[in-house]
Amino acid sequence: MPVITNIDDLKRIYRRRVPKMFYDYAESGSWSEQTFRENTSDFDRIYLKQRVAIDMTGRNLATKMIGQDVAMPVGLAPVGLTGMQHADGEIKAARAAEKFGVPFTLSTMSICSIEDVAENTEKPFWFQVYTLKDDDFMQRLFDRARDAKCSAAMITVDLQMLGQRHKDLKNGLSAPPKLTPASVANMMTKVHWGLGMLGTKRRSFGNIVGHAKGVTDPSSLSAWTSEAFDQALDWDRIRVFRKMWDGPLIIKGIMDPRDALEALNVGADAIIVSNHGGRQLDGALSAIRALPAIMDAVGDKIEVHLDSGIRSGQDVLKALAMGAKGTYIGRAFVYGLGAMGEAGVSKTLEVICKELDTTMGLCGRRDVHDLDRDILMVPKGFSGEWE
Ligand SMILES: Cc1cc2nc3c(=O)[nH]c(=O)nc-3n(C[C@H](O)[C@H](O)[C@H](O)COP(=O)(O)O)c2cc1C
């Protein structure tokens, strides 16, 4: 294994090993990609206070997210098509997460199905649902998640319709990939990836094909997808979903304090401050800039988590010190997975854990429960003053 010291190392290997279509799918944001870029660059605007001569022994990163034990407050975010980044990708990532002791969240738009992941893992994972028009299908998704012993459901509320990513249209993104001269020429250079894919039957959307009405094969799927998402979604409808699932519930995709209050009223156990990794509303604030106003509105009434832009343990530390009780990584684990499968996801988690642990110590803190704004230098006007 090459010497991996940071997430960028994994990203470089990932880029070499995975077909361009799937690299581009992960490594892009919507339209101009402003929000995608600022999600990461805004973390760099926050500085850390170095403290010295403080006992740094006996540090602790273990805590709880929605009442469940985690080795560090960093979960794997739901990522569609993970099984196209590496054969059986969802199973590989879920195994790495369970070994590390952090939550894995399976996307509705995964390649491996809920049942597949449950059969191939030991510990409960979390399941993410998109908000679809078809009540029967939604109820079945929640029922399948319950039968698979998922210990939380995550409802993503920021994708009533799809933000446009130019590269996906140009590449003709699909699962399994369409065979064009350009895609075949590119895939032929990705030997590891290709052998993995030949060795698995899991090459289409496992939660949908054969489960949604009228979707019996991948070719009928695209018509289903454009029809299925519910543009009429409102909070009353989210209340209906709350009734379908009586376990722990996380609402993902909150960027405005008013929406945070709505999520609280629906009876969610946690919210995720997230702009979908810059893949939906381009021009929205970065998640880390949106966090303070949401903390002010609901911070002591509901657990607030954050994703979008986290590429290091230092980023995790900053989000926690700004008040988040949990964080998630999307692309950072995809890089690891595409680079070297399960071992790569484990490596992602190790890198982030070590960075978080060491940086916390160098800030003079020994416990994730004791992080606060006092360790940070946040530029004046960071969250913005808007007309
Ligand atoms: C390739 C890709 C696919 C994604 N698919 C989903 C999905 O199926 N469901 C969902 O709720 N979020 C999805 N997301 C958003 C992630 O859950 C998460 O919000 C985002 O990746 C966080 O930003 P980061 O990648 O900068 O860490 C996806 C993100 C990426 C990069």
From TrEMBL:
Binding site for FMN: 78-80, 107, 128, 130, 156, 252, 274, 307-311, 330-331
Single Gene Ontology MF annotation: L-lactate dehydrogenase (cytochrome) activity
Naturally occurring in which organism (per UniProt): Roseovarius tolerans
Record key words, sorted: Flavoprotein, FMN, Oxidoreductase
Names of the cofactor(s): FMN
InterPro entries tied to this protein: Aldolase_TIM, Alpha-hydoxy_acid_DH_FMN, FMN-dep_DH, FMN_HAD, FMN_hydac_DH_AS
Cited PROSITE patterns: FMN_HYDROXY_ACID_DH_1, FMN_HYDROXY_ACID_DH_2
Family: Belongs to the FMN-dependent alpha-hydroxy acid dehydrogenase family.
Active site: 276 (proton acceptor)
Keyword Oxidoreductase (UniProt): yes
Highest rank taxon of the organism: Bacteria
Pfam families linked to this entry: FMN_dh (PF01070)
Classification via CDD domains: alpha_hydroxyacid_oxid_FMN
Protein name: L-lactate dehydrogenase (Cytochrome)
EC code: 1.1.2.3
